[in-house]
Amino acid sequence: MAVLRIALDGMGGELGPAEMVAGAVAAVREYGHHVTILGDREQLQAAINGYSDANLSAAAAHRSASCSSDSLIDIVHTSQVVGMEESPLEALRRKKDSSVLVAFKLLKKGEVD
Predict the structure, then answer these.
(1) Residue 45: which of 33, 35, 32, 58 has the closest Cα?
(2) Pairing of strands 34-39, 73-77
(3) Could you tell me the pTM of the whole model?
(4) 6 in Cβ contact with 36 (< 8 Å)
(5) How far is residue 14's CA from residue 18's CA, in Å, rounded to a whole number?
(6) CB 27 within 8 A of CB 35
(7) Are the C-beta atoms of residues 81 and 39 closer than 8 Å to each other?
(8) What is the DSSP letter of 74?
(9) What is the pLDDT of residues 52-87, one digit of tens each?
(10) CA 97/CA 77 separation, integer angstroms
(11) CB–CB of 20/45 below 8 Å?
(12) SS3 at position 22
């Protein structure tokens, strides 16, 4: 199976960033995929720090947006969140630093699959 470079909206879950990080950690542990989590860096890093894998925390703390061969989990900070009640189209027009729009930019640049 090919290793995927996954972009994940870390702020998009109903149960908060901790659940999204749990999914990212599972993808890394079970399948060896690289995961780029987009959202509030402080909240995402706190959730990652809860795992005993030192390399997961270190990778997230020190990597940039692009996934390299030694990166397990990257965090890309985004300052805006699209709420459940918002129109997706309007949110994409107004919120240029939302995790959804930034993820599409990473996809366009070939940094995630």
Answers:
(1) 58
(2) parallel
(3) 0.82
(4) yes
(5) 10
(6) yes
(7) yes
(8) E
(9) 764 564 445 444 444 444 558 999 999 998 888 899
(10) 9
(11) no
(12) helix
